[in-house]
Design goal:
The chain is 36% helix and 25% strand. By secondary structure, it is an alpha/beta fold. The chain folds into two domains: 2-224, Rossmann fold (3-Layer(aba) Sandwich); 231-286. The protein has a six-stranded mixed beta sheet, sandwiched between helices. Strands 2-1-4-5 form a four-stranded antiparallel beta sheet, covered by helices on one side. A hairpin with a 2-residue loop joins β9 (205-210) and β10 (213-218). α3 (95-105) crosses α4 (110-123) and α5 packs parallel to α6 (169-184). It binds adenosine-5'-diphosphate and magnesium ion. Adenosine-5'-diphosphate (ADP) binds next to α1 and α12.
C-alpha cells in the first residue's frame, strides 16, 4: 500500500521565475520512514505542504492514503499529522495543554486524551516539564512539544519537516527514538532533513532532491552504489604525488593533511599496501551518504543554493 503517490507534480510560486518543484513523481510506501534529503531551498517544505493539503500544486496529481490531496483534502487531513518546519508552541500554554487539548480537538474523550498525553509526554521526556509555560522551555523542548502533539494524535501518516534543526544531541536522540517507535507501531513517516546522519539513521528509503527535482532515490545501500568508485581511502599527504594517486581514482584534498581517493575496491587494496610500505597513516571506508550527495549535487549539503533566501522561505504564498 502506498502512503503517498505524486505524479508529475510541479509547484510554481507566484512571481517566481523558477518552479520550486518540477515534475516530481514519487511513491512513498506505507509503514516506512521515507526521507527527502536536500539543501535549503531544494523544495522539501513545498513538497510536504502540498501532500499535507496546505498548498495546492500548480500541476500534477497527489494521492495521500488513497485520497486526492486537492479534491479530498478533508479525508486526507483526518488521516495525517504534521510537524511544520516553522512551528512554535503557544507561549502561555504548557506541554500538557498542547497535547491534551489537541487530542480533545481531534475528538478523543477525556480519559483517552489524558492517557495518551501522559504516554507521549513521557516518551519525549517532557513529563517533568508538563506544567511549564512554553515560553519558559528550551528550543529543544518546544520542538519536542510539537512532535508529541503530532504523534499523540491518531494518524496513519506523520509529516516531520526538519524536526531536529537546532536541537541539542540529547533531544535529537529522543526525537529519533520516537520516530522509530512510531514506525514500529505500523505508522508511516515522511521526513525531511538536510542532516546526513539523520537520514542514515532513520530512513528506509531516501529521495535526494535539489533545485526542485529528484536527483536520485533508493535505500541507503542502493544510493551508495551510485558512485562507481565506492570505496574510499584517506592517506597522509606527506610525500605523495596527487597526480600519481589520480591513476587510482578521483582525488580530493580533505584539508586535514590527508588526500582522499575514491576508487574501486582492488585499487584501494593496492593503495593500502603502498601506504603500509611507506609507513603512511591511512583509513579505508565505504562511501558515505554525504559522499553520494556531493557526487550527485556537486556541492555539500551545507552550501545554500543561490536562488533561495530564508526570508522568502517562511512567508506564506
Ligand atoms: N511562499 C513562497 N513564495 C515564493 N517562493 C517560495 C515560497 N516558499 C518557498 N519558496 C521558494 O521555493 C523554493 C523551495 O523552497 P522550500 O520548499 O522551502 O525548500 P526547502 O524546504 O527544501 O528548504 C525556494 O527557492 C524558496 O525560496
Ligand atoms: Mg524547508
Amino acid at each position: 500500500m502506498l502512503a503517498i503517490e505524486t505524479r508529475q507534480v510541479t509547484k510554481r510560486y507566484k512571481g517566481s521565475a523558477r518552479p520550486a518543484l518540477e515534475n516530481v513523481s514519487l511513491q512513498v510506501e506505507a509503514g516506512q520512514v521515507f526521507t527527502l534529503l536536500g539543501r535549503n531551498g531544494a523544495g522539501k517544505t513545498t513538497f510536504v505542504r502540498m501532500c499535507a493539503t496546505q498548498l495546492e500544486p500548480t500541476s500534477g496529481q497527489i494521492t495521500v492514503l488513497g485520497y486526492d490531496a486537492v479534491k479530498q483534502a478533508r479525508e486526507v487531513r483526518s488521516l495525517i499529522s504534521v510537524v511544520p518546519q516553522e512551528g512554535r508552541p503557544l507561549r502561555a500554554l504548557t506541554p500538557w495543554d498542547h497535547v491534551y487539548n489537541w487530542l480533545q480537538i481531534r475528538g478523543e474523550d477525556r480519559q483517552q486524551a489524558r492517557k495518551k498525553a501522559e504516554t507521549f509526554l513521557k516518551k519525549l521526556e517532557l513529563w517533568e516539564a508538563r506544567d511549564r509555560p512554553a515560553m519558559n522551555l528550551s528550543g529543544g523542548m518546544k520542538q519536542k512539544v510539537l512532535v508529541a502533539m503530532a504523534m499523540a494524535a491518531d494518524a496513519q501518516l506523520l509529516f516531520l519537516d526538519e524536526p531536529t534543526i537546532g536541537l541539542d544531541p540529547v533531544s535529537r536522540r529522543q526525537v529519533w527514538a520516537a520516530i522509530k517507535d512510531w514506525k514500529a507501531r505500523g505508522g508511516s513517516i515522511l521526513l525531511t532533513t538536510h542532516y546526513m546522519d539523520e537520514a542514515e539513521a532513520l530512513s528506509d528509503y531516501v529521495v535526494i532532491i535539489d533545485r526542485g527535482t529528484v536527483v536520485a532515490q533508493g535505500t541507503i545501500p542502493q544510493l551508495r552504489k551510485v558512485i562507481p568508485q565506492n570505496t574510499r581511502i584517506d592517506i597522509a599527504k606527506d610525500g605523495l604525488d596527487p597526480d600519481f594517486l589520480k591513476s587510482y581514482g578521483s582525488v580530493v584534498d580533505t584539508g586535514a593533511g590527508m588526500l582522499r581517493v575514491f576508487a574501486v575496491e582492488s585499487a584501494v587494496r593496492e593503495l593500502s599496501e603502498l601506504a603500509i610500505r611507506r609507513n603512511l597513516p591511512f583509513t579505508v571506508s565505504p562511501v558515505t551518504l554525504d559522499d553520494v550527495f556531493v557526487y550527485l549535487v556537486g556541492e555539500s549539503v551545507n552550501s545554500t543554493s543561490l536562488s533561495s533566501s530564508s526570508s522568502e522561505e517562511n512567508s506564506s504564498e
